[in-house]
Structures are given as structure tokens and as C-alpha cells.
Amino acid sequence: MSQIVIIGGGPAGYEAALVAAQLDADVTVVEAEGAGGACVLSDCVPSKTFIASSEVVTGYRDTEEFGVHSDGLEAVTVDARTVHERVKRLALAQSADIHTKLVKAGVEFVAGHARLGEDTLGHTHRVIVTPAGDGVEYSIAASTVLVATGATPRQLPTAVPDGERILTWRQVYDLPELPEHLIVVGSGVTGAEFASAYLAMGVKVTLVSSRDRVMPHEDADAAMAIERVFRNRGMSILNNSRAEAVRRVGDGVEVVLSDGRQVTGSHALIAVGSIPNTADLGLAEYGVELARGGFVTVDRVSRTNVPGIYAAGDCTGVLPLASVAAMQGRIAMWHALGEAVRPLRLRTVAANVFTDPELATVGVSQDEVDAGKTPARQVMLPLSGNARAKMDDLADGFVKLFCRPASGQVIGGVVVAPKASELILPITMAVENNLTVNELAHTITIYPSLSGSITEAARQLMLHELE
Ligand SMILES: Cc1cc2nc3c(=O)[nH]c(=O)nc-3n(C[C@H](O)[C@H](O)[C@H](O)COP(=O)(O)OP(=O)(O)OC[C@H]3O[C@@H](n4cnc5c(N)ncnc54)[C@H](O)[C@@H]3O)c2cc1C
Ligand SMILES: NC(=O)c1ccc[n+]([C@@H]2O[C@H](COP(=O)([O-])OP(=O)(O)OC[C@H]3O[C@@H](n4cnc5c(N)ncnc54)[C@H](O)[C@@H]3O)[C@@H](O)[C@H]2O)c1
User: What does the record give as cofactor (predicted)?
Assistant: First the structure.
């Protein structure tokens, strides 16, 4: 029987374990924090649960427009303790569900730390396990090892989090109350999502963005549309501003920018990216190739350069999404256990930023098209022309669609809208299944619906024979 040891129990690790167990391997998962990993316990799941509370507050905005009288947003109060308790409760419940699923599948789940042992045993690897608590270190022999150790918030040496005023995104749920004035340092996806949620909850928010716009890696039209919404709702956004240092001053914090300006607030959230958890695993000593920044180098079936050692998820830096981590983990096991496997394809991975409004993307990007890397025709339809959007008083947002110039094959899209995470699916299915804009355009959508704008965009891209 194949002996599989998986280091890390996040989406990469636990999805891999489920596949390996299904294929009758003997599987051990060693996890330091809890089943579900950082994704479930401190990153994705908690942040989205927190955002769900912010969306409830948003429901009270602009009610007068609909003829509904309320005392306005000022009368809505958010009980941070209750919100945070809910966040932690849901995360722990999700972790417990995953643990149960793993145990039921026959996976051995070990709470503790693991690293690669120094000597190989012929074709077998050795993993050293340090169990949590007072357990004694021991080693396990494995025919296959999957490194799925995730990543940790990057720290700036001049802005060290203290858990009270200077925070990582993993510490915000321990605050006894909402910040009065939150300075978010870093306007990537993480910074933008938290800035959006706190703003909705009535917190004064300043967003320190080192680039000329928020979310520099996202579609520029979409990022700028969301930046406009943020500004209109009162967020202060400091573009082209790099935080040099963050320090405690009295009852608050002071953020010093690289041009010498200073911004003061009650709390600072440091969201300047993540670093892979690969330092203490004995990888280099084992001969496993690491790329710049400490990411494990893998191919499209999750193999490292050392036979029998695979890696998946955020520790590889391929595309830091839970969905991609899970697929890399599954692919590793299919490959290791001799199943037919399709190498990882990133072209059809949909991604969503959970700001208000949301920003969802799939397929080719505007940058690739503009740079001439991918020839495409495109259309961008503002939601303001959509009947349902008018009823819901949605002025912001759009649907953008890209197709191949001659065949009309759908190759990508962008949606900025409430619940764009749900609206992107038809475009993702079109990209995945090589559908053309004609096929999309002939799909009858619900009237009135926001998804009607997707088929409308496809209709605008149809080529007419007589043209
Ligand atoms: C704030 C935030 C929000 C996000 N929201 C989303 C989202 O909405 N959708 C989405 O798709 N992605 C989201 N992501 C990204 C997503 O969380 C990651 O892509 C995902 O967690 C990666 O899974 P993983 O299995 O690689 O690692 P992780 O989930 O980080 O799990 C790795 C685990 O390995 C453990 N570990 C590390 N070293 C060892 C060791 N030596 N021994 C034992 N265990 C070890 C760690 O403790 C950790 O629990 C978000 C990220 C952040 C930061
Ligand atoms: N909804 C989701 O799926 C979701 C949510 C959060 C994160 N993620 C994943 O995590 C990845 C990483 O996102 P992220 O936002 O955590 O990190 P990031 O690296 O994408 O963004 C960090 C930002 O901070 C800026 N920065 C760095 N130092 C700075 C300084 N001193 N002052 C001001 N700004 C500074 C960087 O220029 C960068 O724009 C994303 O690409 C995404 O794949 C996904």
C-alpha cells in the first residue's frame, strides 16, 4: 500500500488526503493549527464571514430611495464582539467538519509540526513529526510526501504587529470593538476587502496604496470602478503612498509614508502580502528546489525536482487561491498514485474579490489583450442599462466579455456587481467549454436579471454575415 504523508491540512492538504484515501493509500496529514488550515481558521473563511456581517449593514443604506423609511445608517450599530464570535465559531465548525470528513475517509490526522528527515530510506522518504503538546518526536516512512504548508502574513520590520493597534488580518477578530479610524496598509485584494467591509460597518477608513490605483493586479476598469465607489462612500485613499513605518502613538497609531507624510488613526491593518511557510521544513537540505521568495518550485502536476516529493497551494506561489490549492493537491495525488491526470490549467480559474461591489474575473486579462499577447474583440456593458440593476438602484458595475476575433470563442470576462462571484459562472463555463458568443447569446436568461447583461454583451460581440 502507498504511504502518503501530507504536511499541512489546508485546502491543498485536505483535498489531497481525500483523493489519496479514495485511492486506498495509507494517508497521514500532519497539521500545526487545525483541519482546514489557515484558509479555514484565519484567512479566507473568517474574512468572508466578517464581510457577511458588513453586507447586513449595507442593506440599511439608501433605503429612502426605495420608499422605505429607517433612521438611516447612523442608527445601525455593530457589536464587534458578536461579529467576531460568529467569525470564530463558523471557522471552528468548518474546521471540525473537515476533520470529521478526513477521519471518516480513513485519514490519520496528527496535530503537530512536520519536516523532512535528513536521510532518505532508499526510495522511501522520512518525515519527522513533532506532535502538539508534550508528544515525543517520531518519524514516518513515506513513498510520497506532499508539502502543503501555506503562507504567513508578510511583516514590515518597521511595522511589527502587536495584536492591539498594529494588526495582521489574522488578529482583527480579537479586537473588543471596531476601530474608530482604521488605516489599511496595502491595497491588494486582502487590503481592499477589509477596507470595504470596515467602511460598510461605519468605520473611518484610510487606505494606503503603494500604486496609482487599488488592486494593481486586477482589471484596471474594475479596480478603478471600485476605487470610485470607495471614495464616494467616504474612504480616504492615498495612492502612490508607501508605508515606511507604523508605530504606536498614545491611544492610536501613526503611519509614516516614504515621502515623509504622516497619517494618524486608531488602528493599522498591515496587508502587504504573504510569505511561504517553507523555512523550517528541511527542504533545501533535502535538495528540493526553492524559487525566489522561498516558494517551492513545482510543475503542472505538482512535482518538485525530488522524485516522490510534491508540493501544492500557497507554498508554491502558483496562484494563491483556495480553489487552485485544492486542485494542485488533488492532481499531486492522482499523479503519485498512477491515475490519469490533466495538468493544472490556470486559464479557466475564476477569481473573485469580495469588496462591495464584488469583482470577478476569468480567462484572458485586459492587460494581455492590450499588450497584443492575445488577439481579442471585447465589449464592456455598464450595469446602469440593465432593468434589474435599475430596480435595485445599482449604478456601479459592468460586464466585460472577451472573444476570439474570428471564431467568437469566449476567452474571458470581468464582472463588477453585487454577487459577481455567482454571476461569473456562465462566463467561466463558456471559457471552459470553448463556447462562442453566438452560443452564449442564444441562451435565454431570466428577465429581469443581472445575468441578462452577460448574454447582452455576447449579442453585441456576434458577427453578422452581411457586415
Ligand atoms: C485574508 C485572505 C482572504 C482570502 N480569501 C480567499 C477567498 O475568498 N477565496 C480563495 O479562493 N482564496 C482566498 N484566500 C487565499 C486562500 O486562503 C489560500 O490560497 C489558501 O489558504 C491556500 O491553501 P493551502 O492549503 O496552500 O494553505 P493554508 O490554508 O495556509 O494551510 C496550510 C497549513 O499548513 C500548516 N503548516 C505549515 N507548516 C507546517 C508544518 N511544518 N507542519 C504541519 N503543518 C504546517 C499551517 O499551519 C496551515 O494550517 C485568501 C487569503 C487571505 C490572506
Ligand atoms: N477573494 C480572494 O480570493 C482573496 C482574498 C485575499 C487574498 N487572496 C489571494 O492572496 C493573494 C495575495 O493578496 P494580498 O492582497 O494579500 O497581497 P498582495 O501582495 O497582492 O498585495 C499587497 C499589496 O501591498 C502593497 N505594499 C507592499 N508594501 C507596502 C508598503 N510598505 N506600503 C503600502 N503598500 C505596500 C503591494 O504593492 C501590494 O499591492 C491574492 O493575489 C489572492 O490570490 C484572495
Answer: FAD
> Mean pLDDT in the chain?
96
153 CA closest ligand 2 atom index: 16
Q: Is the pLDDT of residue 299 over 90?
A: yes
Annotated binding site for NAD(+): 186-193, 273
Residue pLDDT, tens place only, 402-426: 999 999 999 999 999 999 999 999 9
> Dmax over Cα atoms in the chain, in whole Å?
78
Candidate of 43, 47, 189 to mutate for ligand 2, largest count of ligand atoms within 8 Å of Cβ: 189
User: Which ligand has the minimum distance to the alpha carbon of residue 170?
Assistant: 1
Q: Which positions make up the binding site for FAD?
A: 48, 314
- Classify each residue of 116-144 as buried b or exposed e, where b means 16 or more C-beta atoms within 10 Å of its C-beta: bbeeeeeeebbbbbeeeeeeeeeebebbb
**Stated pTM of the model:** 0.98
Distance of CA 168 to the CA centre of its chain: 16
In 185-309, which residue ranges form alpha helices assigned H by DSSP? 189-200, 220-232, 283-286
Q: Which ligand has its closest atom nearest to the C-alpha of 154?
A: 2
From CA 347, how far away is CA 428, in angstroms rounded? 10
Decide whether any atom of ligand 2 lies within 6 Å of the 166 Cβ.
no
Ligand 1 near 327 CB (within 6 A): no
Residue 73: per-residue pLDDT:
76
Q: Whose CA is nearest to atom 40 of ligand 1?
A: 113
Mention every residue, 6+ apart, whose C-beta is less than 8 A from residue 398. Answer: 221, 222, 225, 380, 381, 382, 383, 414, 415, 416, 417
**pLDDT confidence tier of residue 466, bands split at 50, 70 and 90:** very low
Q: Which residues are within 8 A (CB) of 366 and not within 5 positions of it... i.e. 6 or more apart? A: 219, 220, 221, 378, 400, 414
Three-state secondary-structure class, residue 310: strand
Identify which of 391, 388, 381 has the alpha carbon closest to the alpha carbon of residue 461. 381
The full DSSP string for 92-110 is HHHHHHHHHHHHHTT-EEE
b (16+ CB within 10 A) / e for 26-62:
bbbbbbbbbbbbbbbbbbbbbbebbbebbeebbebbe
Instruction: Give the residue from 188, 184, 22, 1 showing the smallest Cα distance to 102.
Output: 22
Q: What distance in angstroms lies between residue 92's CA and the mean position of ligand 1's atoms?
A: 15
Q: Kindly identify the ligand whose nearest atom is closest to the C-alpha of 271.
A: 2
